[in-house]
Amino acid sequence: MAEQQKQSQNVTSQNVGSSRRNFIKGVAVSSALITTITSKPVWASQCSISGNLSGNASHHDENEVCTFSAYSPGGWLKGRAAGSGPNANLWVYTGVSKSTLVSSIFPNTDFTGSIAEALTGGPHGWERQSVCAWLNAALWQTAMNECQSDPNCQIVNDLAPGFYFPMTTAQVAGVYARGKDELMMTDWESAQNIE
To answer: Which of 72, 76, 91, 123 has the least C-beta neighbours within 10 A?
Structure first.
């Protein structure tokens, strides 16, 4: 009997973990880019790179609502992400440059220009927001990868306070591949607000 209860608890824990992972993977299809943190081991209950890395167990039973906050297209071109003023140039963390073709990050695109051309906007609002989201996702991934063993790594110091974009480049590319999504474009535009 005790063994059956233990197995049942393990299956329930696995289902909860799987459910959370599916939610995180599916965030790209939500209507609002907000996540609710309910488990410290999964999200460290903080809306930041360092919070995600710390595994801090304080406030264990509380929910924390985290709103995405990332660099804007202008921030990537001429603002904080581009290294204006005292800020670090964050392009080095993305693996691409302003002159990289959009087709190298979104192979199924009809857009023939560079990342900088897509970020400029004009009639390419979908490309603009999608490319910007991809850059923010690349930045988030790099920070998570580089800082797993050192939460005080340089990228944490280089990011704007409040930067929070827990998506992967593959998730962003998947959203883009499904075709223009007005709701997602609006969500990304409001979330990509750091100039």
So the answer is: 123
Picking from 50, 28, 52, 26, the residue whose alpha carbon sits closest to that of residue 39 is 52
**pLDDT tens, 12-71?**
444 444 443 443 344 433 434 444 333 333 333 356 555 555 454 444 445 666 788 999
pTM for this entry = 0.73
Contacts of 43 (CB under 8 A, 6+ apart): 35, 37, 51, 52, 66, 166
Angle at 93 between CA 172 and CA 160, to 5 degrees: 85
What is the Cα Rg of the chain in Å?
A: 18
